[in-house]
Amino acid sequence: MFSILRMRSTIINRIPIMSGSPSILILGAGELGTAVLEALSAHPKRTGGKLAVLLRQSTIATQDSAKKAQNERIQSLGAELVPGDLANDSISQLAEVFARYHTIISCSGFGLPAGTQIKITQAILEAGVQRYIPWQWGIDYDVVGTGSAQDLFDEQLRVRALLRGQSKTGWVIVSTGLFMSFLFLPEFGVVDLKARTLRALGKWDAELSLTTSKDIGRMAAEIAYEPGDVSHQVVYIAGDTVTYEKVAGLVEKRFGGQWTKELWDEETLSGKLREKPGDGMIKYASVWAAGRGVAWDMEKTINAQRGIELQGLESYLKDMPGFK
Ligand SMILES: NC(=O)c1ccc[n+]([C@@H]2O[C@H](COP(=O)([O-])OP(=O)(O)OC[C@H]3O[C@@H](n4cnc5c(N)ncnc54)[C@H](OP(=O)(O)O)[C@@H]3O)[C@@H](O)[C@H]2O)c1
User: Fold this and answer.
1) How many whole angstroms from 276 Cα to the centroid of ligand 1?
2) What residue owns the CA closest to ligand 1's atom 24?
């Protein structure tokens, strides 16, 4: 009897007991990082659990009033500011910081030098972080495959290979489709409000999945605090999956008036890329025009499976201010 009790207490002692929610470090606090922090900080299942945001020391000590206000906002949401430079710090410098947290959510990637996402992942693995949600908010890179028009996506696949090649660090890749706001960037091409032009990338009846950054934040918090059996896997979320035809129809309905319609197929975009080989936006648009890995059925999304309603395109358009 005594030995059974002793065995039991030994087993119990070995189980890492986590009091409250896990500690979470968010890398970057731009549009996405802020949305993730807001959702984490407000999540009903959060019980304690430290929140922190990694930013460059120059950003933390900024004299710029907009950045100062942003730093104050981060702190008002209960997160501490942690200095670190994703582009310039070494793997071991980053690993030293990462090791202090249970979960790392990366919300920084645009504009960082090639190889940074690999370096961050190596630091995550070196630190032995328990769970990593990488900067893979986007399309289904496994389906896109290597050698796409957007060279950055090959690095995303190498990050997946690193994560899949080990079992110690849990990871969740959240495929979000296109950020809803991207649909309205004139450089991306689909909806150019000022030029009153609507475009299809590839084909008018091709589909694309869309999620707002606020909803990406909500789902990231959901996965962080209510993971269920979600681990070591790619999951899908979306507020809407629509054809370019549907996008055009909804924009016309919302704003009225005359619109020019154009098709940017793969050939058109290859021509544009030959003229401007370094243009990241044309590279993006070309991947959407190829039409692989950019859309999934709503039933496949974890928001639909968990009965969580996210904002669709029609509702997003309703919230948009009118324009002249
Ligand atoms: N699938 C998609 O369509 C997709 C995917 C991702 C993002 N997006 C879009 O891309 C745009 C950018 O969004 P975002 O929030 O990802 O990026 P962001 O607004 O550029 O923010 C990046 C964050 O990382 C920080 N940062 C930059 N360089 C750093 C470094 N070397 N070390 C540490 N921190 C650093 C920035 O801080 P500083 O203030 O110091 O610069 C900022 O807080 C948004 O419009 C979003 O909608 C679209």
Assistant:
1) 23
2) 28
Q: Nearest to residue 283, comparing CAs of 200, 203, 188?
A: 188
Q: What pTM was estimated for this model as a whole? A: 0.92
Residue 110 Cα to ligand 1 midpoint, Å, equals 5
Class of residue 231 by CB neighbours under 10 A (exposed 0-12, middle 13-18, buried 19+): exposed
Two structure tokens written together for 95: 């690993």
User: Are residues 164 and 142 in contact, defined by beta-carbon separation less than 8 angstroms?
Assistant: no
119 CB within 6 A, ligand 1: no
How many other CB atoms sit within 10 Å of the CB of residue 259? 16
The residues, ordered by sequence, that sit 6+ positions from 303 with a Cβ below 8 Å of its Cβ are: 215, 219, 237, 238, 239, 309, 310
Distance CA 14, CA 208 (A): 47
Q: At 178, phi and psi to the nearest 5?
A: -75, 140
Residue nearest to atom 13 of ligand 1 (CA): 31
Task: State whether the beta carbon of 202 lies less than 6 angstroms from ligand 1.
Answer: no
> What's residue 324's pLDDT?
56
What is each CA distance from 251 to 185, 210, 260, 299, 314, in whole angstroms?
14, 15, 12, 25, 8
At 241-250, the pLDDT tens digits run 999 999 999 9
Which residue has the CA at smallest separation from atom 44 of ligand 1? 31
CA distance 30 to 144: 26
